[in-house]
Design brief:
The structure holds two protein chains of two kinds. Chain A is built from 22 helices and 20 strands. By secondary structure, chain A is α/β, with parallel strands linked by helices. Helix content of chain B is 30%, strand content 43%. In chain B, strands 5, 6, 7, 8 and 9 form a five-stranded antiparallel beta sheet that branches. A four-stranded antiparallel beta sheet of chain B has the order 2-3-1-4, with helices on one face. Chain B is elongated and about 55 Å long. Classes of the chains: A alpha/beta, B alpha+beta.
Chain lengths: 563, 163
């Protein structure tokens, strides 16, 4: 069957099982758009390309499948760069299809030409410029394979306009053979035994669980291990939801805004089992004093993560799922001969005592609405059964601290890059994947304005995303740093000039609510969540509330500022 | 800080050199020299990279190179018995009174004179870093006008035995 490049591209997407892509047309991709009506792949028209890439990312995080976005050359392509870097830092599988000027014009500074392959080389897992239609199908196949295998990540495919017009026979390869790419997936048996031996010897073990557990779908094995071997669990921001947030063994997040119990546990444990986490600086604080008494075991699919920031004693390079399954098999046999519960009782008691001593808390107020109170109410109303997206800053930390995530893939947040403006379009992508689920973006008044134009997209595509703005009239996290470390010099962080968010919602055809009284918080949220349309709830919260606990940047985890 | 010679086999596809060099610049690693050319196998190029760093940095460099999708194989030749050679062209001042002495040095070092004019000689030398360093310092006092170096190329020895 002979097809044009554009037809072939869409056939490839169909073969990959793509049901939807997010995009924005332009001159270099008109040929592709010309064929979209003939394809089963649905296209959602965003209002800015950054919205498209974040939506594809949110779709990928919520479903575990590869998200797809399609944009034109030049500015269309560069507008996706922030979103590509966001997906890269958090290892999210997305495929970005960018238009390119015709091959003969490449390098001539043609209209809307940019070297997007060059620009995105350091923030994609891999990228391609398709030079001939004969390479198109195999390249798309590889792009999807690379995006989802090993340590997942974004893969960009640049498509010159004239390649989309070429005609050739369509043959979609059944499998991918790449001599240069063979990600390790199976764990080394000897290393697994070694880990098991150390686990049996440990008296104060701690699991430090990261985003890799969610990406690999190994939450069930992790939960089984923690519960059966009686090991407390702390999680990174990216790992929240992998282990039930309401389990007594769960200590909450560790690191800069981690809980007292989690950070004390890291400091005192004699064995730290890191799974699918990468010892980010926001997690470790001062590296020299991180887990000073522990033998560190590190399970990760990416060898470069191991020994990068922290020196570990036992590396285990493998897909988390395979590694945790192997550990589970090994330990199933030990349930009879090892007194796990008795061995760890003293430690679990100690860790829980830390939790009781300084639980996550805030000073509530009868009049002023505290942002933490709002997040708690969202949790109560949804009973944890919602997909939560966050923006970046204080809203993100409160959403991580005061909402209990009990299932994986239910928190969509830009952990590594910290991209303001991520949450709303990501929520839009997740809502498209799960039209019947409640999808809530917990936002700040600063970050929500960074991709606000997607209001039009959610309204006209009937994606009933709920936006809850914790509106404090500040770029709150930067203000908090200015307060604590920069002599309260609130330079350029005060956002006292703001749009009327209710009118703004209504202007787009969504619903808007303003909440200024504490008594109205719960009832308004209930009303908003019950509406079958997009909603903005603008909640005026305490202006200068801080996120605590807080470990100042570069300090040891035990040097926490508490409420 | 120690110099390591890395032998990196890559798919010879567009942008591969930029991926490798971008990795070094983006992560703040130091490249001392880099040489790249095709191998006998179709579509495969061999890079010889001399990089500087402590053990932890070298480990990261090796792992990061392996992580690049077009990378087929990475060997740290510093960890094994290997042969390393570099070729250098040196244009040196050679007025009549100095010429005999320079030619004597050329002879001792088994170099070749590849270009000559009334007051300059261009010398081709091949050798390991020790030999090239010695020659460059010996010729330095005559005045080196230009120097062009290939960077190291290297290969693992067939027999990995201690002699």
């Amino acid at each position: 069957m002979k097809l044009t490049g554009a037809q072939m591209l869409l056939k490839c997407l169909e073969k990959e099982g793509v049901e939807v892509m997010f995009g924005f047309p332009g001159g270099a991709v008109i040929d592709i758009y010309d064929e979209i009506p003939n394809s089963s792949v649905e296209h959602i028209l965003v209002r800015h390309e950054q919205g498209a890439i974040h939506a594809a990312d949110g779709y990928a995080r919520a479903t575990g499948r590869v998200g797809v976005c399609l944009v034109t050359s030049g500015p269309g392509a560069t507008n996706t760069v922030t979103g590509i870097a966001t997906a890269y830092m958090d290892s999210i599988p997305v495929v970005i299809l960018t238009g390119q000027v015709p091959r003969a014009l490449i390098g001539n500074d043609a209209f809307q030409e940019v070297d997007i392959v060059g620009i995105t080389r350091p923030c994609t897992k891999h990228n391609y410029l398709v030079q001939d239609i004969e390479d198109l199908a195999a390249t798309v196949k590889q792009a999807f394979y690379l995006a989802r295998s090993g340590r997942p990540g974004p893969v960009l495919v640049d498509l010159p306009k004239d390649v989309m017009q070429q005609v050739a026979e369509f043959n979609y390869p059944d499998s991918v053979q790449m001599r240069s790419y063979n990600p390790t997936s199976k764990p080394h048996v000897g290393q697994v035994r070694k880990v098991m031996k150390l686990l049996k010897k440990a008296r104060k073990p701690l699991i430090y669980s990261g985003g890799g557990v969610i990406t690999s779908g190994s939450h069930a094995d992790l939960t089984w291990l923690a519960r059966n071997l009686r090991i407390p669990v702390t999680s990174t921001l990216m790992g929240l939801g992998a282990f039930p947030g309401d389990d007594p063994l769960f200590l909450g997040m560790l690191g800069m805004h981690g809980t007292f119990a989690a950070n004390m546990a890291v400091n005192n444990c004699d064995l730290l089992l890191a799974v699918g986490a990468r010892f980010d600086d926001r997690v470790t604080g001062k590296v020299d004093t991180f887990a000073p008494n522990a033998t560190i075991i590190h399970i990760d699919v990416d060898p470069t993560s191991i020994q990068k920031n922290v020196s570990v004693h036992v590396p285990l390079v493998a897909d988390c799922k395979a590694a945790l399954a192997a550990l589970r098999t090994e330990s199933e046999a030990s349930l009879d001969d090892t007194e796990w519960a008795a061995d760890h009782k003293e430690w679990v008691d100690q860790v829980q005592a830390w939790g009781a001593e300084h639980p996550l808390t805030y000073k509530d107020d009868d009049v002023v609405i505290k942002p933490q109170y709002v997040v708690e109410k969202i949790y109560e109303i949804t009973k944890g059964d919602a997909i939560i997206a966050t923006e970046v800053g204080q809203n993100q930390m409160w959403a991580a601290q005061f909402y209990k995530y009990t299932k994986p893939n239910t928190l969509l947040t830009s952990g590594g890059l910290g991209t303001m403006g991520y949450g709303f379009p990501a929520a839009m992508g997740a809502q498209r994947a799960f039209p019947d689920k409640l999808v809530i973006d917990i936002a700040g008044d600063g970050s929500i304005q960074m991709c606000i134009q997607e209001m039009m997209t959610v309204v006209c595509n009937k994606l009933p995303v709920k936006i809850v703005i914790l509106n404090n009239g500040y770029l709150g996290m930067v203000r908090q740093w200015q307060e604590l470390f920069y002599r309260k010099n609130y330079c350029e962080t005060c956002l006292d000039a703001q749009p009327d968010f209710v009118k703004l919602a209504e202007a787009y055809g969504a619903a808007g609510f303003l909440v200024t009284e504490k008594k109205d918080v719960e009832s308004t949220l209930r009303e908003a969540f019950a509406l079958d349309k997009p909603v903005i709830v603008d909640i005026r919260v305490a202006r200068e509330e801080n996120v605590y606990p807080m470990v100042p940047a570069g300090a040891s985890l035990t040097e926490m500022l508490l409420v | 800080m120690k110099k390591h010679t890395l032998s990196v086999m890559v798919e010879n596809e567009p942008g591969v050199l930029s991926r490798v060099s971008g990795l070094f610049s983006g992560r703040g690693f130091n490249i001392y020299s880099l040489n790249v050319a095709p191998t006998l196998e179709k579509g495969v190029s061999l890079m010889t990279i001399v990089a500087e760093g402590d053990d932890q940095i070298i480990e990261q460099i090796v792992k990061q190179l392996r992580k690049l999708v077009p990378t087929i194989k990475v060997k740290d030749l510093t960890e094994m018995k290997s042969v390393e050679r570099e070729m250098v062209l040196i244009k040196v001042n050679a007025e009549d009174s100095k010429r005999a002495e320079i030619l004597r040095i050329v002879d001792i070092f088994r170099c070749k004179v590849v270009d000559v004019s009334t007051d300059e000689l261009t010398i081709e030398v091949t050798g390991d870093q020790g030999k090239i360093g010695a020659l460059v310092s010996l010729l330095g006092r005559f005045g080196i006008k230009e120097i062009a170096r290939t960077g190291n190329v290297a290969m693992q020895r067939s027999m990995q035995i201690d002699l």
